[in-house]
């Protein structure tokens, strides 16, 4: 049994009344043996439920259902994610960068015991796509929005929450997005702390990465970086490529003007993997011969093309975004505000080998 399955089963028992208010759930070692899950995982799951107000933990006595817990309404939530097509060679990048959004949304909805309904892009082109379902909310990514789907969503009586874009979109939907300016401010500050006054910018000539680069330039300007501090190395997207091949191409081009100790910023971890492949072929040592900062923190999602986490990256907090988006649906369902919310989730700088630093920061 996996941790999310343990949490889901426990919540089912609590909601159904099999475990009522004040009921004894068990000791950590007993729950670990019963469900075949390490004690550290049991503790982490139970501590999450403590924060959510579902259970109480008493030292030397065990874990109990909180007497103050009141089960929530069983919500009916739709999810709609348009994802890019993928080749087998790009599957690991696809899973870490894109598939994580719908996959984790399903996990969270299962944990909460909510009914889930999945919709395709073609479904949303029909105004009555949700007929008879009595939805309480809809979670989607911006790739689902076009001039045909937007009118079909604007008059829905339930909250619609959009995720996965880099900055706010001009539509009347709730949005939960990464706080890129905050993350890039932290990055620029660290560059200044390390006496780095020049930077080479690596990016693809496509909308998402160019938007990230624009936000970074604005954030860096707040730390005294002028346009003269930056050099650019970019390329068009390659057919059928998620960015790794383009990154390798950019990396090879960058090597032609590279000098020891140069610092680079890439707008995508996938692009950065290609850049690193080119650099490693020339036996360059990260943090010594070059410094590279990226965006996305895909290594935290298990993308390890070099066998271990090496890439310093501004985190794209995908799991936190999904949890906050679902919580927003819960809040708007319980007490409609009549407001359109744009919520920005913090983006931390995760420092690893590709950036020399005096302290190492890894996600908890």
Low-confidence stretches: 357-364
Anisotropy-based shape:
globular
Q: Quick one: CATH class of the largest domain?
A: Alpha Beta
Radius of gyration: 23 Å
What topology, given as strand order, has the largest sheet? 5-4-6-7-8-14
> Can you give the helix content as a percent range?
25-40%
Description:
By secondary structure, the chain is an alpha/beta fold. The chain has three domains: about 5-65, Orthogonal Bundle (Arc Repressor Mutant, subunit A); about 75-180 and about 320-345, Response regulator (Rossmann fold), CATH 3.40.50.2300; about 180-315, Rossmann fold (3-Layer(aba) Sandwich). Helix content is about 40%, strand content about 20%. The protein has eleven helices and 15 strands. It has helices at about 5-15, 30-35, 40-50, 90-110, 120-125, 150-155, 180-195, 205-220, 245-255, 270-280, 320-335, and strands at about 25, 55-60, 60-65, 75-80, 115-120, 135-140, 160-165, 175-180, 200-205, 230-235, 260-265, 290-295, 310-315, 340-345, 350. Strand 4 (about 75-80), helix 4 (about 90-110) and strand 5 (about 115-120) form a beta-alpha-beta unit. Helix 1 (about 5-15) packs parallel to helix 4 (about 90-110) and helix 9 crosses helix 10 (about 270-280). The longest helix has 22 residues, at about 90-110.
Topology:
Layout: H1 3-16, E1 24-26, H2 28-35, H3 39-51, E2 55-58, E3 62-65, E4 76-80, H4 91-112, E5 115-118, H5 121-124, E6 137-141, H6 149-154, E7 160-163, E8 174-179, H7 180-193, E9 199-204, H8 207-221, E10 230-235, H9 244-255, E11 262-266, H10 269-281, E12 290-296, E13 312-315, H11 318-334, E14 342-346, E15 349-350
Parallel strand pairs: 4-5, 4-6, 6-7, 7-8, 8-14, 9-10, 9-11, 11-12, 12-13
Antiparallel strand pairs: 1-3, 2-3, 13-15
Helix pairs in contact: 1-3, 1-4, 2-3, 4-11, 7-8, 9-10
